[in-house]
Amino acid sequence: MFDSLKSKLKGLGKSASKLDSEKIYEETPKKKDKIIEEEPPDEEEELHADEVDVPDEDLDDDAFFEKLENDYLEERAKESGSTYTPIKTTPSNPAKSEKPQPKKEEKAKVAPKVDDSAEKKRAAAEEKERLAAKKKAEEEAAAEEKRLAKAAEKEKSSAKKKAKEDAEAEKKRLAASAEEERLAAKKKAKEDAEAAERERLAAQKRAEEEAAAEKKRVAAEMAALEAEKARPAKEKEKPAAEPKKPEAVEEKPISRKEWLKRNKQNPAETREKKVYPAGEMVGDSGKRIKDDPLDDLLDELEVILLESDVAYPVVQDIILGVRDNLINKKYGRQYTLEEVVETAVKESVRRVLKINEFDFDRWFEEQPKPVVIMFVGINGTGKTTTIAKIAKRLLDHERSVVLAACDTFRAGAIEQLSIHADRLNVKIVKHQQDADPSAVAYDAIEHAKSKRKDAVLIDTAGRMQTNNNLIDEMKKIARISKPALKVFVGDALAGNDAIEQAKVFDAAIGIDAIVLTKIDTDAKGGAALSIAHTIGKPIAFVSNGQEYKDLQVFDSNWMLERLFEE
Ligand SMILES: Nc1nc2c(ncn2[C@@H]2O[C@H](COP(=O)(O)OP(=O)(O)OP(=O)(O)O)[C@@H](O)[C@H]2O)c(=O)[nH]1
């Protein structure tokens, strides 16, 4: 009777096991409750649920169910850690058991038990279904999770890809902009270079034109020079040796009264209005200055100035200016008119001299080196001696000097300068007599440049201001050597002549400074005042002897005292 049931159970597999379990639950309700409260079997357990052992076929039905129950209980006891006590109600096998076989009625009582387990079987099936549904839900959740992860991964990789693409696009854009900038800079540099080149070519063209014009001028001058040299020696020396009185100097001195008379007739034409104040002596109160006593005093001062070698026009200008300033003014009662007039004249002379002071040493230090200085003047004024004195002064200031013997005209001039060069132990650049003086100056400057010398002092031939050929030669030397300073050397004894000489040389090459020589002779130095007043150029030095040390910086106070000393 149990064969069919057994086979059914065998076919059911797990269901049979569950069915048996339900029977056990019914018989041990406590256990059942406990099992229900327990966690559902894990997935692994579920997967192997079908692998539950089916009791041996040779067991009888009771033994079979008993074994099933015991197996279950043992398993549960293992899981819960409690003690397992097997149930023993039936012998395991009639063949093996010695217990008597149950009666047919007893066995019939078991049959309804199988019917009860159908319900449990259904419940087990439902549980299986639930578990299957749960498993499915879990699988779906896992699948969803996997899908989401995959989607996230995809999104992440596409975002990464986009970022990479964006970065590459930005890189390309920056590279393009840099290239654009580079090309623009290149274009600008090219344009600048082209403009600079155009400017350079224009400057070069201008320089070439100027050089050609200069060459032409020099050729003409050389031809003139050759013509001058070709003239018979006598003819050549005569006009140069005979000083010609300048027109202005030739003007006969006139008396102050005569000057005043002329001045009254046409004041605007005859004089330039200048103000010569008498300081604090003259004002709005005190004694009034009248014509006659003033003119008498001015006459006396006029004589003093003329005796000091001040040129007559210069004296007139100063005296008349003082008169204009004092006439009809009032002076303090504590002064005499003599004091007032003398002070006014001295003030006006000091002003003329003062504005013409020149600090040679300071000027020299400020110049780019080599400093080229050219000396000009008429014959015998002391140019060569002055050059030697200035060379000595520069050497004393630890400056190096080159002498240029550009007086190739006078026999002995080169020798004279050579002697100074030897004494001072300085370099002299010289050519043969009659050589082109401009070439000598050029060579001396080149030498100074190559040897890093500080100064080039150019000596020139003495010439009368009336000798046009020699004046032109002097202009050529100045053009070629481009001196930083052109010094007019004037003789203090020259008096009125010195004014005319200074005027001509200034007009020819532009005089920058004056050296007044032979001040140690009985000359009072009026020439300094005359030259300074006439051409308005500063007096750098006065020479007062023939030794190298006899060179003084011009001092207006010293000169003023000298002019008016008794
Ligand atoms: N007493 C005196 N004599 C001077 C002074 N300066 C120059 N001499 C003299 O004047 C003379 C002419 O001087 P130079 O230096 O040869 O004159 P220069 O201007 O070169 O003359 P040239 O070569 O003819 O142009 C020489 O005997 C000098 O000694 C000076 O300050 N006082």
Automatic annotation (TrEMBL):
Residues 80-93 have a biased composition (Polar residues). The lineage of its organism: Archaea, Methanobacteriati, Thermoplasmatota, Thermoplasmata, Methanomassiliicoccales. NCBIfam families: ftsY. Pfam families: SRP54, SRP54_N. It is found in: Cell membrane; Cytoplasm. Residues 38-63 have a biased composition (Acidic residues). Residues 538-551 form the SRP54-type proteins GTP-binding domain. Part of the signal recognition particle protein translocation system, which is composed of SRP and FtsY. HAMAP family: FtsY. It catalyses: GTP + H2O = GDP + phosphate + H(+). This is Signal recognition particle receptor FtsY. Keywords: Cell membrane, Cytoplasm, GTP-binding, Hydrolase, Membrane, Nucleotide-binding, Receptor. Residues 1-16 have a biased composition (Low complexity). It comes from Candidatus Methanoplasma termitum. One of its GO terms (cellular component) is cytoplasm. Residues 1-253 are annotated as: Disordered.
